[in-house]
Amino acid sequence: MQPNQKQPTYPVDYLNQIAPKAPKKSLLNRKQLIIAVGTALLLITFIIIIVVRSNFTSQTQSIQRLAARLQATAEIVSDSHQSIKSSRLRSLNSNLSIFLTNANRDIAEPVIANGLDIKKLGETIVTAENSEELTKTLEDARLNAVFDRTYTREMAYQLETIMVLMQQINSKTNNTALKEFLSGSQINLEPIQKEFAEFNATAS
After folding, report:
1. Which residues does the chain have with pLDDT short of 50?
2. Dihedral angle, C-alpha 153, 129, 116, 189, nearest 10 °
3. For the residues of 149-190, what is the DSSP string, one character each?
4. Residue 166 near residue 182, CB atoms below 8 Å
């Protein structure tokens, strides 16, 4: 090296620049990542189970409500027949009675398929669907000589609630037997409900 030759200059952090860089630490090591993924999967599974169970419980309660409402309505129809004065309304009421007799018989199989017993419906549901209030309304109407008019109005509403409940259950269930029962029942009940809704209580 010549005496007058300039020494090469290096940046202050030269050694830092040429030194091998340590790998960056990941936020989660392999074990922590497996635990995190496992926890997330368990949480998702738990949420799915809750949603499925909630839907099943809701559907079960709806089926019980329908069965209880059909039974309560059949009792009203039977008890009211002797109080009806219009021959046309008596005929319509007889048709409804036949429909309800068949419906209460036919609903038993799909109810059993859903793990329920038609004769052992939930006490709370049976109480909520009982006909005590409607029976009182009809008795007051009978005493005030307006039974036919009151009966047709109340029954039209009662049948409408039954059809709405059938539609709700039908839209949520995958049970073939239940769907067939609901579809057939709606087809048969709709014209009867319409006749009650349009009935003129003064007609004979």
Report:
1. 46, 50-56, 201, 203-204
2. 0
3. HHHHHHHHHHHHHHHHHHHHHHHH---HHHHHHHHHHHHHHH
4. yes
pTM: 0.68
Q: Which CATH class is domain 30-198?
A: mainly alpha
CA angle 66, 197, 159 (to 5 degrees): 5
Write down the domain spans for the chain.
30-198
In whole angstroms, give the CA distance from residue 71 to residue 158: 12
The residues, any chain, with a CB within 8 Å of residue 204's CB and separated by 6 or more, are 86, 87, 88
The SS3 assignment for 62 reads helix
Cβ neighbours, 10 Å, residue 98: 13
| Cα distance between residue 54 and residue 126, in whole Å | 21
Q: Which long-range contacts (CB under 8 A, 24 or more apart) does 25-28 make?
A: none
